[in-house]
Amino acid sequence: MSGNVLGKRFVVVSFGESHGRCVGVVVDGCPAGLPFDERDVQKYLDLRRPGTSRYYTSRLEPDEVDILSGVFNGYTTGAPIAMVVWNRDVDSDHYSEYHRRPRPGHADYVARVKYDGFNDWRGGGRFSGRITLSHVMAGSLAIKLLEYVLSVKICAYTKRIGDVEVDKITYEKLERRYSNPLRCPDPVIAKKMEEVLNSVMASGDSIGGVVEVVILNVPVGIGEPVFDGLEQDLSKALFSIPGVKGVEFGAGFESSKMRGSEFNDRLVVRGSTVRYESNNMGGIVGGLSNGMPIIVRVAFRPPSSISIPQKTVDLETLKEVDITVRGRHDPCIVPRAVPVVEATVAIVLADHATRYGLIPPVLSKEYGKFKRRDS
Amino acid sequence: MSGNVLGKRFVVVSFGESHGRCVGVVVDGCPAGLPFDERDVQKYLDLRRPGTSRYYTSRLEPDEVDILSGVFNGYTTGAPIAMVVWNRDVDSDHYSEYHRRPRPGHADYVARVKYDGFNDWRGGGRFSGRITLSHVMAGSLAIKLLEYVLSVKICAYTKRIGDVEVDKITYEKLERRYSNPLRCPDPVIAKKMEEVLNSVMASGDSIGGVVEVVILNVPVGIGEPVFDGLEQDLSKALFSIPGVKGVEFGAGFESSKMRGSEFNDRLVVRGSTVRYESNNMGGIVGGLSNGMPIIVRVAFRPPSSISIPQKTVDLETLKEVDITVRGRHDPCIVPRAVPVVEATVAIVLADHATRYGLIPPVLSKEYGKFKRRDS
Amino acid sequence: MSGNVLGKRFVVVSFGESHGRCVGVVVDGCPAGLPFDERDVQKYLDLRRPGTSRYYTSRLEPDEVDILSGVFNGYTTGAPIAMVVWNRDVDSDHYSEYHRRPRPGHADYVARVKYDGFNDWRGGGRFSGRITLSHVMAGSLAIKLLEYVLSVKICAYTKRIGDVEVDKITYEKLERRYSNPLRCPDPVIAKKMEEVLNSVMASGDSIGGVVEVVILNVPVGIGEPVFDGLEQDLSKALFSIPGVKGVEFGAGFESSKMRGSEFNDRLVVRGSTVRYESNNMGGIVGGLSNGMPIIVRVAFRPPSSISIPQKTVDLETLKEVDITVRGRHDPCIVPRAVPVVEATVAIVLADHATRYGLIPPVLSKEYGKFKRRDS
Amino acid sequence: MSGNVLGKRFVVVSFGESHGRCVGVVVDGCPAGLPFDERDVQKYLDLRRPGTSRYYTSRLEPDEVDILSGVFNGYTTGAPIAMVVWNRDVDSDHYSEYHRRPRPGHADYVARVKYDGFNDWRGGGRFSGRITLSHVMAGSLAIKLLEYVLSVKICAYTKRIGDVEVDKITYEKLERRYSNPLRCPDPVIAKKMEEVLNSVMASGDSIGGVVEVVILNVPVGIGEPVFDGLEQDLSKALFSIPGVKGVEFGAGFESSKMRGSEFNDRLVVRGSTVRYESNNMGGIVGGLSNGMPIIVRVAFRPPSSISIPQKTVDLETLKEVDITVRGRHDPCIVPRAVPVVEATVAIVLADHATRYGLIPPVLSKEYGKFKRRDS
Fold first, then answer.
1. For B246, which of A26, A176, A253, D23 could close a Cys bridge (C-beta 3.0–4.6 Å)?
2. Which H, E and C letters describe A113-137, residue by residue?
């Protein structure tokens, strides 16, 4: 019980259900004095919004944020910030069937067992991808905070869909990651990904993919060993996004095939600062940021909902039956997951930057000056 | 700061340094009434102990556990259990050099920056693999508890070293995973792994690998969404083991290439219980255990210490220099990491089983009877 | 920062401001299967509501609860339960003056310093007594849970206003504690208290008092030493109610004048159970409930807002000035604090009963039967 | 379960038993760079040590601290600091009797019930006053930290024993609070207290008292509303000291008899700073420090152990019997509690000062300079 609280200083509390009144979040621990309003959130909600591309689920939700507390006169107050998105386009028709005949790949069965049937099963309830609205609302605040205080920049993008993969990426390209609905910064690869998606959709199937995150301007030393290192807390948060089955940093699983002489990032002097010659570590060593870009890859399995009939069990008769999942769903969750991953990563970094003393409890009105004096 | 506490109910606190007085751990939240003494810990410490194979570091440590509190008359008391391993074979000769000239791959540089040089850099201090003694001590208690109350069985093994990989594994084979120093249950593959290690050692290099964990008899419904699901907390704990760069569950990164029709585990009836036909989910869906074996794979990068000269920076002169890392180190950390991974996984499961109410606060002397009555 | 989360298992998160959109709360960790709806909350909100007696502030707030999540088909689902009360009768006219010229007794000055003026100062913002709506909403859920599962009964009442004090109280009388607006179960004393209040109000002043809580049917052994004992966590929660300046258990401060031979509660046998002959301990020893009624007394200082002119400082000119606090306020907070104290105590007990394993994660539909079988 | 962890940033973990191997503590979250060694701890342990006055228990314990980790070259490293006091003079002879026939006033009975008899009952185990060695060890570190960074000064003293009370106290007198074994800064009153103790001891009885704490130089704004205010967290920590039955701040329980016009501390200008004319608030308003001295009073009940025969229950026969408590005990715990209260208060303040950003994660070697520049 009580698993809906994340973080120690920039504390995020998620609530709400897919087909309930709303999905919401409370952030406790954001410093006072950050300029913040609905627009800062809405721009990320819009990036995640369904129905804006033929490759996204057709559920028509405006997904407008409603800030309930913690903001006054355009600034955060230091009090907890509660935000909700009210659900509008709810269609719970088929879900009582799925409660009885669990959809393969979904959490219908385990949720029913765990909560002895009391769970709100409409639309998957707490297990719906819609819950990531919490991540996005809290994360958009974290993104603003990190940018304002530390100039941290978080760029996720669609690295792979099925077998189609972006090989090399430049930071310039990353700026254009939202220029197509696939969130793939390479337009040639994006085209190929569309082909894959078209074929998948034609067959009523779904497909997985990989999101890569590149985080720039992270100061050295963020992360608290041994249990609250950056890899530890980033992976924990990322696995809370429905559909994630793997997380790796830097060379990741490939590093398990490498030799030390090949893997070790050598230290070098660039200008007057210490840098690394390569980045197999993915910007994190010993759980601490090392000043290099942080590189994380997140593997998403294919969405569970497909329109092909599948075998399952009728939990009342305990007989095997066939089920066809109706309703609206994404053929691949990766494109819409891109802003969710950015938001989730930001939550963890905001928490850790605060723990490490890099973000003060109040950003006074002369914060710009203060920043200059300090550096 | 304060990142050395893990868990919410079965709470683990790590302390100690590689070349300090000891490495220790406090477990707060273990139920009263569990039969427990030094032997339960020692057997796991022995599996992790250096110097017992030519493929392990030659540091000669008896690694004997000393239980300081929380156990009385052979049973846990419900009070916090403190345990330490006193360091014996400490050789800090070269470390002041590494503090000045950080070893590539190690945390020497980031630790120095983060703590402004105050960190205990001898032997890597808190960033040494030796810190996993904490994991093993606490984990051996968790293993005992899980077995005693829930008959949970945790089996990790060396899945891969470099390119040599175990393909298929049966649960019978898993029982023999500790029969060779490589902790590879397949003797033919183990032989090949030895060849790889021999060649790596001959060149003064190191190599990475993968540990796979199979967890049996986990009841349905363990894990607390949305942030404290099982994947979330297992990955967090596993990334606290030095050298881990990736964690995946079930089909993992492979699932990102799959279609939903292929990936989805269908529900079936076996006897009178609901099971899944396949296990691409790796026993976890929506962050909850689903009754199938939990399958986790952990990617280890090659150990940082190699005897080949490497480039680094002298932090006092800010000049690039060559460094040769002396001292005793493992050519591949995977075999000795196997018991560490088992212990780490157990800590998380013990925490979650308690949170989910499956482990009562006291195991009364008639616990055997109670268990029977309840099931 | 981030001080708005209370508890470890029945976790309460408070948000909202006195003159903002709403005051709200999220409860994470309530078991699934508890029958619960708006009426369970409303009855406690009504007991706390302003404007229902001439002795209460005249702010006219309907204070209706709005449950946003976590309840489905009349039962809790195991998901976080978010509840809000929307603010209606907001009058922020004078507060910009108080932000500049802090009201003595209020947190205006310290809040301004702490948050560098970014705090929402309207109506006192987060420091208003109105914030206890969070306590009451979460607490009404806790009260229901404790009664449903453990038959715990929590009775607070007005023990003293100024010098007028209830001497002896029987549990029968406690049942009638809400029969008058003073929440004093003794009608003769209640009359005298009214006289005190009338005189205080006539002079534009305010007055303090004491709430006593009696908690019945608490099983032996609740509380987690050494830091999370019942006295520890009850006092922490009670001091979060604005205006509390002292908390004592059993004989409390009087016990500091007593001898051991007089204070020690002797153990006796009553029927077939062990009881105590007296209750100087107030039902808690070593931080653990001992099976006797838990007795807590909470001292409230007089409300800060009085209509008599007072000296303060103009923070912009740094000159001393006189201020007259306008607006609507209670002459004594104690009567309206009575349900708040009950709710607050319930939150702590629900958290601890869950931690001690007395409240299962799901209250199955046959919970009544289960309860019988178990006892 | 798991109630032995206190704090969020300066995290204290207590372990050990009265008659076990040791009593110990881990502090996780102390900044790196604080000069610290055994002497800093020993001086507080010596103040708490038994056997150094005829008014203290005669258990002969050297109570020498052993620092196990987290300190290197005379400075804290930023890693967890583990400290233990090894038990030497253990005499568990009579305790098996008390386990069966619980001593009135002690936790023997409730502990046995809670842990179903598995608890280490020797010497009271975890419920012994000896557990406050943890508080003193961690607290001595906190005291050093607060003094070093913020010049905070914490002075507790014996305010009252039985009916003999110190009326007025000056801060100069407070400096001499350890000049007599009663820890009463007024020598005339101290004499009278001795008389009370002599008479109590002569009759084999015990007596209660009050400790008052005065905390100087606390900056404005420490404390995190609404649940983690200073009163909230100070009271929680203070109630973890065995024998405490009441905690009050400033005017405390007396404030419940006062009128607002009398109680409210007026703001005034002194020099160029805002101060309060009086200190009925005890230095805390709205849970935040207000810049005035923090005043806390802690009521201690009489020690439970008296040599007068008392009634109790034989838990094996369920018959009432008489018991005479043998062994060594304090006639009044207050004098030896004085350093414990100081240490406990320091832990909370160190935690909160860190949370509020007043204590940086590293105290660099030029910290003195940095401090000057900053102020």
1. A253
2. HHCCCCCCCHHHHHHCHHHHHHHHH
Strand partners, D285: D288
Strand partners for C210:
C160, C299
Into how many domains does chain A fold? 1
B365-369, D112-116, D341-345: the lowest-pLDDT one: B365-369
Residues 6+ apart with CB under 8 A from A237: A6, A344, A345, A347, A348, B227, B232
DSSP assignment, residue D271? T
Q: Is C154 left (phi over 0), alpha (psi -120 to 50) or beta?
A: beta
Question: Which chains neighbour A (Cβ–Cβ under 8 Å, 3 or more pairs)?
Answer: B, C, D
Q: Give pLDDT tens digits for C28-58.
A: 999 999 999 999 999 999 999 988 888 998 8
Q: Is B9 in contact with B349 (CB distance < 8 Å)?
A: no
C180 alpha-carbon distance from chain centroid = 19
Q: What are the tokens at B280?
A: 């691409």
Query: What is the distance between the terminal CA atoms of chain C, rounded to a whole angstrom?
Result: 44
Question: What is the CB neighbour count within 10 angstroms for residue A40?
Answer: 18
> How far is it between the farthest Cα atoms of chain D?
72
Of A242, A65, A193, A217, nearest to A141 by C-alpha is: A65
Work out the burial of residue B375: count CB atoms within 10 Å of its CB; fewer than 13 is exposed, 13-18 middle, 19 or more buried. Answer: exposed
Stronger pLDDT, D61 or C258, i.e. the higher one: C258
Q: What is the SS3 assignment for B299? A: strand
Residues 6+ apart with CB under 8 A from C144: C34, C35, C36, C40
Query: What whole-number percentage of chain C has pLDDT above 90?
Result: 87
**Nearest CA distance, C360 vs chain B (angstrom):** 6
Chains that touch B (3 or more CB pairs under 8 A): A, C, D
E strand intervals along C250-309: 267-270, 273-276, 284-285, 288-289, 294-300
Instruction: Give the closest residue to C291 by CA, choosing from C259, C269, C309, C314.
Output: C269
Specify the 3-state DSSP secondary structure of D350.
helix
Count residue pairs from B and D with Cβ separation < 8 A: 179
CATH number assigned to the domain comprising residue A294: 3.60.150.10
Q: Residue D104 sits in which domain range? A: 5-374
Report the residue from D220, D245, D302 with minimal CB separation from C259.
Answer: D302
How many Å apart are CA A263 and CA A102, to the nearest integer?
45
ipTM of the complex: 0.97
- What pLDDT is stored for residue B90 in this prediction? 79
Q: Which two tokens stand for residue A211?
A: 């999101």
Average confidence (pLDDT) over B113-142: 96
Which residues neighbour C328 within 8 Å (Cβ) at sequence distance 6 or greater? C50, C57, C58, C59
Q: From residue A302, give the alpha-carbon distance in Å to each of A54, A360, B298.
A: 17, 41, 22
Chain D residues inside the 8 Å CB shell of C206: 259-261
Structure tokens at B255: 């699932």
Residue A363 backbone class (left: φ over 0; alpha: ψ -120 to 50; beta: rest): beta
Q: What is the pLDDT of residue D373?
A: 35
- Best mutation target, A355, A363, A364, A370, to test chain D (most D CBs within 10 A): A355
From CA A352, how far away is CA A80, in angstroms rounded?
18
C-alpha to C-alpha distance for D141 and D208, rounded to whole angstroms: 29
Give chain D's mean pLDDT.
94
Average pLDDT score, chain B? 94
C-alpha B172, offset from chain centre: 22
Confidence of residue B367 (pLDDT cuts 50, 70, 90): low
Q: Is the peptide bond before D244 cis (omega within 30 degrees of 0)?
A: no
Taking chain A, what is the end-to-end CA distance rounded to the nearest angstrom?
A: 44
For residues C181 and C54, give the distance between their C-alpha atoms in angstroms, rounded to a whole number.
9
